[in-house]
């Protein structure tokens, strides 16, 4: 017997009831199923899209991953395609932005311990490759010239760009600022009086890329052209707002270098930046590069930037300090301000250790986790705070907080933890190892089981699969004073040999300086017989080859 037809109005009312329930309750599996069943039967595509989008946003507002996320994300893109086909560039840009904001909501990738992008990067971004509006957004706009070598007779000019975050930039900038053969400038796109007002919001950037916002484009051209005319090389730290702004303007013969850390890979920015105007894209680790290539396949296509892997710039000498007498039984976690750092994993390790020996304790270094950023983070924080109180009650945890003297704080730590679900490189772990603390690295779940991850970046012996293995490693290496100190010296030696700025700076020289020229802070030429540096770091490979490695 055929199922009687239910009018769209009735189906919509049922779906709206389900959405209202989802907006009020954390436990809404039945409501989500009702929404899916009713929404799929609605004949009007616009009504159906409204219901799916409203349902997804209701779940995200409660801090949960929506059951119908992909359908809602696709519905937004279909609207963008309709507007784009009609030539309504502003509306197309607005809908494309909404689709990207939905697909890259922080609940999905930042405030939880899983990510649909990390699970299946190519599949997750597939709808963006099918969308006509998104295709227009990523269409190469090209440039009027190719990057040219700096002219002879004057210092090479480097412009360093960031957007209110120069945390990883100082050693790189300072190296070239001290070189008489280089002239440097710094542009903070968030606070510059001319560029800053143009660096607010994403929608008009997307609208401009799709052909709208002509006046905004002219203002941006006027703001950035003096910087591009002055610089031989623009080094943009973070593949985010700064990179998007510069890629809206033709760089001419100025070389554009962009460095991508970690958060950008889980954001909408790589889908907005016009990589045809980027000469070199730098990743801080191989596993991050692989993830980005899988999620953004155009990075392996013809016309893509040259891809490089260069370690973070960090001076490790200041961390070489004597350990305090009780450091052997003190664990350290540097950076606890994000859910991705998963400090609950560290607490579990501590509990296991204290079952064997109650001398073990944990120091938390950095700003605390903020439950106010959203409901998902608040839910994690509630469970974390409950566990933390029990350990604080017996004096097992000490909060160091934000400190200008990280080397001093690490002198009190004998075991350094990396408890995160994802990291691109983990500066705090490397600094801890350089201080002589025994490293214990969780096999970061976002990358575990892939060809490259924590086990490819760090020595195999440092990496553990779970808290029990972490506790076992710590008990073994801290069993005796001599054994602990020996393990710490070995870790420090490896860290300094592999990642100290004295080594990594040569990779930056090969990337940023003309072939054959070395940095010399005294103005002297390289020593006689010294081999000239190659034009690009050894890690640079053709994008096509890297794409095959990531598949």
Concise synopsis of the structure shown:
Helix content is 46%, strand content 11%. It is an alpha/beta fold and 551 residues long. A 6-stranded parallel sheet has the order 2-1-3-4-5-6, sandwiched between helices. It has a 6-stranded parallel sheet with strand order 9-8-7-10-11-12, sandwiched between helices.
Structure write-up:
Helix content is 46%, strand content 11%. By secondary structure, it is α/β, with parallel strands linked by helices. The strands form two sheets. A six-stranded parallel beta sheet has the order 2-1-3-4-5-6, with helices on both faces. It has a six-stranded parallel beta sheet with strand order 9-8-7-10-11-12, with helices on both faces. α20 links the parallel β11 (438-442) and β12 (463-464). Residues 522-551 have low confidence and may be disordered.
Characteristics:
disordered C terminus, 551 residues, alpha/beta, 24 helices, 46% helix, six-stranded parallel β-sheet
Outline the low-pLDDT stretches.
522-551
Structural class: alpha/beta
Mean pLDDT: 91
What is the distance, rounded to the nearest whole angstrom, between the alpha carbons of the first and last residues?
48 Å
Percent of residues in helical segments?
A: 40-55%
Radius of gyration: 26 Å
Shape: flat
The overall strand count is 12
Number of helices: 24
Major beta sheet summary: 6 strands, parallel
> Strand share of the residues?
5-15%
| Widest β-sheet, arrangement of strands | 2-1-3-4-5-6
């Amino acid at each position: 017997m055929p199922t009687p037809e239910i009018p769209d109005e009735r189906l919509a009312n049922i779906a709206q009831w389900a959405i209202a329930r989802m907006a009020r309750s954390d436990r809404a599996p039945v409501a989500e199923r009702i929404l899916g069943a009713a929404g799929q039967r609605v004949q009007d595509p616009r009504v159906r899209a409204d219901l799916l989008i409203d349902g997804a946003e209701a779940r995200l507002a409660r801090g949960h991953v929506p059951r119908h996320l992909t359908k809602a994300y696709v519905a937004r893109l279909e609207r963008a395609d309709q507007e784009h086909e009609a030539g309504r560039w502003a509306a197309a840009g607005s809908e494309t932005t909404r689709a990207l904001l939905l697909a890259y909501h922080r609940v999905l990738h930042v405030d939880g311990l899983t990510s649909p992008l990390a699970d299946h990067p190519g599949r997750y971004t597939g709808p963006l490759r099918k969308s006509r509006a998104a295709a227009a957004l990523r269409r190469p706009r090209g440039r009027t010239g190719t990057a040219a070598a700096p002219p002879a007779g004057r210092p090479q000019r480097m412009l360093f760009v960031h957007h209110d975050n120069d945390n990883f930039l100082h050693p790189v900038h300072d190296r070239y600022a001290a070189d008489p053969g280089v002239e440097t400038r710094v542009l903070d796109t968030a606070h510059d009086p001319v560029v800053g007002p143009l660096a607010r919001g994403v929608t008009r950037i997307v609208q401009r890329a799709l052909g709208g916002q002509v006046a905004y484009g002219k203002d941006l051209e006027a703001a950035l052209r003096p910087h591009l005319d002055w610089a031989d090389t623009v080094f943009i730290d973070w593949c985010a707002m700064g990179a998007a702004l510069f890629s809206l303007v033709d760089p001419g013969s100025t070389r554009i270098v962009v460095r991508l850390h970690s958060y950008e890979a889980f954001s909408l920015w790589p889908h907005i930046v016009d990589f045809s105007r980027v000469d070199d894209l730098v990743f801080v680790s191989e596993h991050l590069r692989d993830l980005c290539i899988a999620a953004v396949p155009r990075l392996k296509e013809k016309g893509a930037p040259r891809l490089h892997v260069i370690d973070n710039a960090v001076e490790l000498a200041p961390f070489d300090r004597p350990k305090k007498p009780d450091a052997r039984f003190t664990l350290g976690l540097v950076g606890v301000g994000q859910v991705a750092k998963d400090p609950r994993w560290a607490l579990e390790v501590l509990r296991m250790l204290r079952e064997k020996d109650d001398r073990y304790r944990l120091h938390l270094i950095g700003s605390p986790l903020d439950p106010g950023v959203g409901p998902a983070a608040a839910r994690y924080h509630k469970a974390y705070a409950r566990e933390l109180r029990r350990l604080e009650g017996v004096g097992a945890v000490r909060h160091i907080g934000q400190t200008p003297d990280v080397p001093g704080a690490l002198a009190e730590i004998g075991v350094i933890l990396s408890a995160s679900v994802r990291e691109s490189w983990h500066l705090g772990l490397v600094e801890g190892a350089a201080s002589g603390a025994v490293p214990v690295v969780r096999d970061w779940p976002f990358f575990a089981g892939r060809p490259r991850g924590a086990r490819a970046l760090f020595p195999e012996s440092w990496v553990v699969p779970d808290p029990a293995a972490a506790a076992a490693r710590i008990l073994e290496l801290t069993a005796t004073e001599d054994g602990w100190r020996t393990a710490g010296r070995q870790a420090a030696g490896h860290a300094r040999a592999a990642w100290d700025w004295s080594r990594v700076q040569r990779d930056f020289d090969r990337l940023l300086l003309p072939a054959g020229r070395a940095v010399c802070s005294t103005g002297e030429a390289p020593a006689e017989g010294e081999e000239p540096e190659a034009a690009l770091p050894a890690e640079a490979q053709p994008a096509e080859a890297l794409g095959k490695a990531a598949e």
